[in-house]
Amino acid sequence: KRPWLCAVISPSQLFLSEKLSKYDQQTKLEKIVKRINNSLSQPEKIRKFIIANEAFTVANKMLTPTLKIRRNEIFKNYEKQIDKLLSELTTKVKKPTGRINKDCILLRVL
Predict the structure, then answer these.
(1) 64: number of CA atoms within 13 Å, CB side?
(2) Cα–chain center distance at 66
(3) Parallel, antiparallel, or unpaired for β 46-51 and 5-10?
């Protein structure tokens, strides 16, 4: 367990259809995450996030047929990016408490 949360955000087809640049997508999602974080306690707040390259679907094996998130599949596909996020966060925190593991929030933007 560590003192921060990161997220892999899966944009919806509607969000992707807006044809925003990567920078504009990042900015828009930062505003959404900031608004959500305002209503959360400190341990629940998302510090950093990754925008998934594609929506999580059954076809790309990111979701089960009952629309549950397949964490292992997502971590396999985004392992390098998650590791980079965690290393960025670790360098900002003097000494992280606890073991750094692959716990990460997986969000689907509707």
Answers:
(1) 6
(2) 21
(3) parallel
